[in-house]
Specification:
CATH class of the largest domain: Mainly Alpha
Oligomer: single chain
GO cellular component, one term: membrane
Structural class: mainly alpha
Strand content: 5-15%
Distance between the termini: 25 Å
InterPro entries: Lysozyme-like_dom_sf (IPR023346), Transglyc_AS (IPR000189), Transglycosylase_SLT_dom_1 (IPR008258)
Largest sheet: 2 strands, antiparallel
Pfam families: SLT
GO molecular function: peptidoglycan lytic transglycosylase activity
Strand order of the largest sheet: 1-2
Number of domains: 3
Shape: globular
Organism: Candidatus Parabacteroides intestinigallinarum
Radius of gyration: 23 Å
Order of helices and strands: HHEEHHHHHHHHEHHE
Length: about 325
């Protein structure tokens, strides 16, 4: 029976994982693995936890028991939550080229792009049970405080560029307060008031010494863990080809200063569907657009670019992919 190319790749990958596991084990354990002959094509191996991890230009020692175990939890979760983690890479190929220059322009460390990854899974239309919305998961009050417009027909929390700029304003304000990027990241989840209050009440100076609610406690470790996997995907078993990544789709800008009573009709005039208009402009929240005297820019994709007639070849980070040669 002939083995298909995909099955061969799966078999080889599984064999490599098994071999790696055997090499890393002692001779007795390796012998036991060979003797038991796994009936699956891969093995579940606990990822190695380093003694220190980099974040925003600083090497953070995680040998303390609680820090090591917290990091191990998140690294293991992302490593074996295969479908979700794969999807993050695919979406990042489309959104990181937009996010990274904005972070750099505003003096925010590049590592903060991973906040968007864990906040929304890089879904501009994500909505939480607490009604946080968008790529950066802004609550309505905070969004308005940092310059985003929210009306019955517009929600700029779902605008990739504008919400990223708003997130930068928040992050810069928090850094002026703490002078520590890890504390800034935690405050993005827990709020500056809570982080400041707990530092004072617990008489501590470091974020990592605080007792916080579980979600906020896990937050920074999640950011550091997904950063590790994004920078070394093959090490954690993610074998990705260029054609697997979602291609960036170019658009043209159409400025609108007048109300659009029927966005479906407007879309037809632009040569696209109403559905595509909403997908490429997720900040639209109604069938009409009321400008309120403002000028908005609508992104209009070219119809010819909406198809995967040829495999994707645009790779934002070469470290993500393996050669197909």
């Amino acid at each position: 029976m002939r083995m298909s190319r995909n099955n061969l790749i799966s078999f080889l990958c599984g064999g490599i994982v098994c071999l790696t596991a055997c090499i890393s084990l002692g001779s007795d354990d390796a012998g036991k693995v060979r003797e038991d002959r796994p009936v699956v094509s891969s093995m579940t191996v606990s990822p190695e936890v380093p003694s220190a991890v980099p974040f925003c230009g600083k090497l953070i020692d995680i040998t303390r028991y609680n820090m090591r175990e917290a990091y191990d939890r998140e690294l293991s979760s992302f490593t074996y939550f295969h479908s979700t983690t794969l999807l993050l890479f695919k979406r990042a190929n489309r959104y990181f080229p937009i996010i990274e220059p904005i972070l750099k322009e505003n003096g925010i460390p590049d590592d903060f792009k991973y906040l968007a990854v864990i906040e929304s899974s890089l879904n501009p239309r994500a909505t939480s049970s607490a009604r946080a919305v968008g790529l950066w998961q802004f609550m309505q009050t905070t969004a308005r405080e940092y310059g985003l417009t929210i009306t019955p027909t517009v929600d700029e929390r779902c605008h990739v560029e504008k919400s990223t700029r708003a997130a930068c304003r928040y992050l810069r304000t928090a850094y002026e307060k703490y002078g520590d990027w890890a504390a800034v990241a935690a405050s993005y989840n827990g709020g500056m008031g809570r982080i400041s209050g707990e530092l004072r009440k617990q008489d501590e100076e470091s974020l990592f010494d605080l007792w916080l609610v579980e979600e906020t406690t896990r937050y920074v470790y999640r950011v550091m863990a997904i950063k590790q996997i994004f920078e070394h995907p093959a090490k954690y078993g993610f074998i990705i080809r260029a054609r697997d990544l979602y291609k960036p789709i170019p658009t043209k800008d159409v400025k609108v200063s007048r109300d659009i009573p029927d966005l479906a009709a407007f879309a037809k005039e632009q040569g696209i569907t109403y559905a595509d208009l909403r997908r490429f402009n997720p900040w639209l929240r109604d069938r009409k657009l009321l400008t309120g005297g403002k000028t908005y820019i609508l992104a209009i994709p070219l119809a010819s670019d909406l198809y995967y007639k040829t495999p994707n070849t645009r790779v934002h980070d070469p470290a993500w992919v393996v050669s197909e040669n």
